[in-house]
Structures are given as structure tokens and as C-alpha cells.
Design goal:
about 650 residues; three-stranded antiparallel beta sheet; two-stranded antiparallel sheet; 22 helices
Length: about 650
């Protein structure tokens, strides 16, 4: 945004944008308009000590943001599963089918591991809630999880090497302990890498998280507590081991219902109704938060990174090798094409990542069930697909301890992933359909807004048979300053023809605004001629400019009502920001690809322009107040 300076007479004048600035230290949005309209929190980038256009930026952003989120989800789940591994015995007598008591040494080590994991989870929860500092929390969490992992691994090795010689089999509790050790290792690795990034001064001593991402751990913690309570309840009501009861609760809450375990008493039937209903609500909240994080929390920052890398490369090219044919208009078209490519790349990457994780879950799950349940691979694959879409026919269900323990963790991760995948693909298909519709409207140019409402066969034939009347192209070298250009740009129908954006009809508000603008334009020629004869600093000129700004605000408001994601054309940007009045800087033609360009950010353009024009109005009002104050002081001196 333009900055003001005070001249010798006490008046404020507008300074030219610093187009040559190209430093990214201490990132911050330069104006209130950007702070209010941009789609990400500037603190998420400001916390990083990395240039947004560098290749390492996206890596350390992922470490600072996603690693804590993944740890926050896995930490409560690891405690939930470790509880099942500690309550159930690790050995089963195959002749009786009953569990056999574990040796006291294994039991003690198992309890120590459980307590260490709980401490780590509790400390991490304190850090997420802001009650414990980053460094202390990291040191305690990493140490506690290392202790839990090492102790549990020792217990598993001891039990595996010496306690299965008498023909005992491994129970579901043993396999829950194995899964717990794996989860502890993942949590230790993620937090250690994050702490290394802090020690390397890649970011500040904090988790780079939004409020909803911090709340995710609290909801995951509640979700885990709900499973723990349900497992204890139904292990008594259905006379199941704790591990099998946890398997039953997961199958019920995720609405799969395999039918291998079911309530057989009135009390258990009543309780499962209440338990499943509340559990589905909690699950829905967790999935909604995960979907929001995946789709919106970090998407704008990835978009900003892709734009920055290409914009920086283009800006460097034309500063090192100036090209006289590279006009201001071409710079605008270049940054706009960069934005379009970045949006497409972001959507494609989101779909590819979701599909990759989806296929990984399916093939990995099928492989585990193929080994654990002795099914053929097609049956395992078929079972995984049915579980993902929550169809439980009951003809296939895990019966081994390994299969059920893995199924608990697999379902908790796979079913929410399926929901996120459907949401991502659905949003992409919706955007694709809107893009196709806009391109059809561009190809078949309609003269009247009423004809653009429907793509009837008759209209299409008439458009092909009639002479094509394409919108006029903008002058690539001369900025539009004439009153005729201003009049045409103020009509939202003409805005549609110049931009190709999807504004098909104008509402009643639009009609009222146009009639108001028409009345105002009736005196435009006279006012402009008067304006030319007066000084630029005169009160009359300032009031006239205020009236123009108000008219522009009305136009922007009409456009935003029709389409809040409307992308303004070159002519509209020049008109609304008064860029034809900027100083003839040697690098002015590179403005749109410089760091001063607002188009480098993911933002709502109508909201940004509204704030910019409002700031211009405030500046003019301040100048008028200064004029009044100076006039009163002069009149007071004369008297």
C-alpha cells in the first residue's frame, strides 16, 4: 500500500511504492488490506526463518506444521492401544482358549511403559493448550516416549524369546503392545525432527499450528477416552477380553458392524445404542476438523509458495535482462497465469496425495490380513474396500489376535481418510465443472446477460451462425485514464466481457447501483473540466475524488455479491488503485511481479480492494480535516 509522508507545509503526500524491494526477512503483510483479505495467517510464515521462495521453505513448513498435528493424533491413540496391551495378558493357552498370566518382570515393564506414554501425552497436551513452554515440553515428551519405547521393546523381546516355549499363542494384547511400540517410535521420530529444526533455527520455539489444529488433539484425546470407557463397559457386559471389547467398540462407532461380535442382552443393546450414537458424533467432529485442516489450513500457504517460486524467478529474469516489450499489462498477465497454474497444481497435488494414501492403506491392509488371517489376496483386498465404505456383510471378519489388533488401528485411520478423499475429489470435480462452464461461456460469447443464463441449443446455433463479437483487448502499453474507460469499467456487464468471469446476471442491488452511477456520470464531463482548472490539492478536487471512490466501492460490492471469488481484470485494478497516477519509476512495469504486487498472495480480491479504497478515503478525509484546521488557524491569526 502507498505510504504517506509529511512535507514542509504540514500536508501529507503519497509516496510511490517501493518496487525494488526484494527481501523476505521477517515476513509480514505490508498493509491492513492484505492482512484482512489474505487466506492464511501471516504468523504461519513469520515463524519460519526461511525465504518463502526457497526450496527448503515448504519442507520446514511441513515439519513445523504437520509433524505436530500427526503427533497430536497418534499420541492419544497410542495411549488407548497401550492400555489394551497392558490390561490383557500376552499369552493364550490354545487348549482352553483362556489367557495365561504374564511373568512379573514383563508385567512390570509393561506398566512402566504405559505410565511413561501417558506422561508424554499429558505434557504434549499441556503444550498444545499453552500451559507449558515448547522447550520443556519437547524435552519431557521425547524423553518419556523414548523410555516407553525402550522398556516396551525389552518386554516384548523377553516374552517372545522365552515365554512361548510351552505351546502358548500370542494374544490380542501382545499385538496391541507391538502396535503401541510402533506408534511410540513414530511420535519420537516426528517430535525429534521438529526439535532439530528448532535447534537449527529454522523456526521459533513453537508448534506452527492454528487454533483448530491445536483443538484437534483435545478432540482426539476425548475420542480415545470414549473408546477406553466403552471397552471397559462392554468387556463386562459381553464377557470379552479388553482387547476384543476395544475391537467391538471401534467396529460399532465406525458403523461397519461385521456381526462377529454383537450385544446379546437387553442391557448391552441399550448401552450400545447410546454409546454408538455419541461416538458417531465425536467421530464426525474429528473428521470435520481433519477435513478442514487438509483443505484450508495449509492449502493457501502451498499456493503462496508455488506463486513465489515462479514470481521470483520471473522477476529476476527481467531485472537482470530488461525487455522493452515486457509491458505493465504483460506483467499482469504473467502473474495471473502463474496464479492459475498454481491453483491447478495445488488441486492436482491434493488429489494425488489423497489417492496415494488411500491406495497405501488398502494395499498395506490387504497384505496384513493376507498374512494374519490366511485369506487369499483378493479376499483381503475385498474386505478392505468394504470396510472403507463401511459395508459390513459379515462373511469376512478378522478372528486372530493380530488381525483384530491391526484392524482397530487401520480402521481408525482409514475411515476418516476415506471421508477426506471424497471431500477433496468432490471439491476438485466441482471446481473443474465451473471451469468448463466458464470456458464454454468464453467460447460462445453472448451479447445479452439473459442469453448467458441458459446454454440452449437455439442460442448455441445462433452464436455460431452469427458474426463473432469478441470483447475488445486492452491496450498493452498505455494505462486507461479516459472517462470513456471509466464509464465502461463501471458497468458490471462490461466487466464480465473484459474478464470472462462468471457474472451472469445482476441483482436488484446491482440495478440500483447502476442507476445511481448513471446519474452521477451525467455531470462527469463538466466536473472533469472544472477539475483540470483547479489545483490537485484543492478541497474540491479531493471531494470529487472521494465521490469517485464511493462509486467504485459500490461497483466492487455489486461484483462481490455476485461472485466473492471474482478475479479483477487489468483495467479494473488500474482504475480502482489509481495506478495511472503512480510515479514513472524505472521498474514500474515490473510492479505486478515484484514484492509489492498483491497478486502474489492467496486472497479475496474484492475484499482487498474494498479495504484499499477505504484507506484512500480515510487519507483524503484526514487531508480535508487538516485543511479545515489550517484554515481555522489562519483565520484566528488574522483576527
Amino acid at each position: 500500500m502507498n505510504r504517506t509522508r509529511t512535507n514542509g507545509s504540514g500536508r501529507r503526500s503519497v509516496s510511490a511504492p517501493n518496487i525494488n524491494s526484494n527481501s523476505n526477512s521477517n515476513f509480514g503483510l505490508p498493509s491492513r488490506a492484505l492482512q484482512e483479505s489474505v487466506k492464511f495467517k501471516q504468523e504461519r510464515i513469520a515463524v519460519l526463518n526461511t525465504d518463502p521462495s526457497s526450496k527448503s521453505f515448504i519442507i520446514w513448513f511441513g515439519v513445523s506444521c504437520y509433524f505436530p498435528v500427526i503427533s497430536a493424533c497418534l499420541s492419544p491413540l497410542s495411549n488407548m492401544i497401550s492400555m489394551a496391551g497392558a490390561v490383557d495378558h500376552w499369552r493364550i493357552n490354545p487348549e482352553t482358549g483362556h489367557q495365561v498370566d504374564d511373568p512379573s518382570s514383563v508385567r512390570t515393564l509393561n506398566i512402566i511403559s504405559l505410565l511413561s506414554g501417558v506422561i508424554a501425552n499429558f505434557v504434549l497436551l499441556l503444550n498444545f493448550s499453552g500451559r507449558l513452554g515448547y522447550v520443556k515440553a519437547q524435552l519431557i515428551c521425547i524423553t518419556a516416549w523414548i523410555v516407553a519405547l525402550v522398556v516396551l521393546t525389552i518386554a516384548l523381546i523377553m516374552c517372545t524369546t522365552r515365554d512361548y516355549d510351552q505351546g502358548y499363542q500370542r494374544s490380542i494384547g501382545y499385538w496391541f503392545a507391538v502396535i503401541t511400540a510402533c506408534l511410540y517410535f513414530i511420535c519420537v521420530s516426528l517430535l525429534s525432527i521438529h526439535f532439530i529444526g528448532y535447534l537449527k533455527k529454522k523456526y521459533a520455539a513453537t508448534f506452527n499450528l492454528l487454533e483448530n489444529e491445536r483443538l484437534l488433539m483435545s478432540f482426539t484425546f476425548v475420542f480415545s477416552i470414549w473408546f477406553l470407557w466403552g471397552s471397559a463397559l462392554f468387556s463386562r457386559l459381553l464377557h470379552l477380553t479388553y482387547g476384543n471389547s476395544l475391537y467391538f467398540c471401534v467396529v460399532s462407532v465406525l458403523t461397519i458392524g461385521l456381526g462377529d461380535i454383537y450385544p446379546d442382552t437387553t442391557a448391552s443393546e441399550i448401552m450400545i445404542l447410546i454409546y454408538s450414537l455419541i461416538g458417531v458424533i465425536i467421530l464426525g467432529l474429528v473428521i470435520a476438523m481433519i477435513s478442514g485442516i487438509v483443505s484450508s489450513s495449509s492449502g493457501p500457504i502451498f499456493f503462496f509458495y508455488h506463486v513465489e517460486t515462479q514470481r521470483t524467478r520471473l522477476y529476476k529474469k527481467y531485472t537482470e535482462n530488461p525487455d522493452s516489450n515486457f509491458t505493465d499489462f504483460k506483467a499482469f498477465e504473467s502473474i495471473r497465469n502463474i496464479r492459475e497454474r498454481s491453483k491447478s497444481r495445488q488441486h492436482i497435488h491434493a488429489i494425488i496425495l489423497s489417492l496415494f494414501l488411500f491406495l497405501l492403506f488398502i494395499f498395506l491392509g490387504a497384505l496384513v490380513f493376507y498374512i494374519a488371517e490366511s485369506w487369499d489376496y483378493f479376499e483381503s483386498f475385498y474386505f478392505c474396500i468394504l470396510s472403507l465404505i463401511t459395508i459390513g456383510y459379515g462373511n469376512l471378519c478378522p478372528i486372530t489376535g493380530c488381525g483384530r489388533a491391526f484392524y482397530v488401528l487401520w480402521c481408525i485411520g482409514a475411515v476418516p481418510l476415506m471421508t477426506v478423499l471424497i471431500s477433496t475429489v468432490g471439491d476438485s470435480l466441482y471446481r473443474c465443472s465451473r471451469t468448463i462452464d466458464r470456458r464454454i461461456r468464453r467460447y460462445i460469447y453472448f451479447e445479452k446477460p439473459s442469453e448467458a443464463q441458459t446454454l440452449s441449443f437455439k442460442n448455441i446455433i445462433l452464436q455460431f451462425l452469427s458474426p463473432r463479437n469478441y470483447p475488445p483487448k486492452a491496450d498493452e502499453s498505455v494505462l486507461p485514464v479516459s472517462s470513456a474507460t471509466e464509464a465502461s469499467a463501471s458497468d458490471p456487464v462490461d466487466l464480465e466481457r473484459n474478464s470472462g468471469n462468471d457474472i451472469s446476471t445482476l441483482s436488484e442491488t446491482s440495478t440500483k447501483s447502476n442507476s445511481y452511477s448513471a446519474r452521477r456520470r451525467s455531470n462527469k464531463a463538466r466536473l472533469l473540466s472544472l477539475e483540470d482548472t483547479m489545483k490537485e490539492e484543492s478541497p474540491f478536487a479531493k471531494i470529487t475524488e472521494m465521490r469517485k471512490l464511493l462509486d467504485d466501492l459500490k461497483e466492487i460490492d455489486v461484483i462481490s455479491i455476485e461472485n466473492e471469488d471474482y478475479e479483477f481484470t487489468y483495467e479494473q485494478w488500474v482504475k480502482y488503485l489509481r495506478l495511472e497516477k503512480r510515479l514513472n519509476h524505472s521498474q514500474s512495469k515490473l510492479f505486478w511481479i515484484s514484492e509489492e504486487s498483491p497478486l502474489r498472495y492467496p486472497f479475496k480480491q474484492s475484499l482487498y480492494l474494498t479495504y484499499r479504497l477505504s484507506d484512500m478515503l480515510n487519507e483524503i478525509l484526514d487531508d480535508l480535516l487538516e485543511d479545515v484546521e489550517i484554515g481555522e488557524m489562519k483565520s484566528h491569526d488574522h483576527t
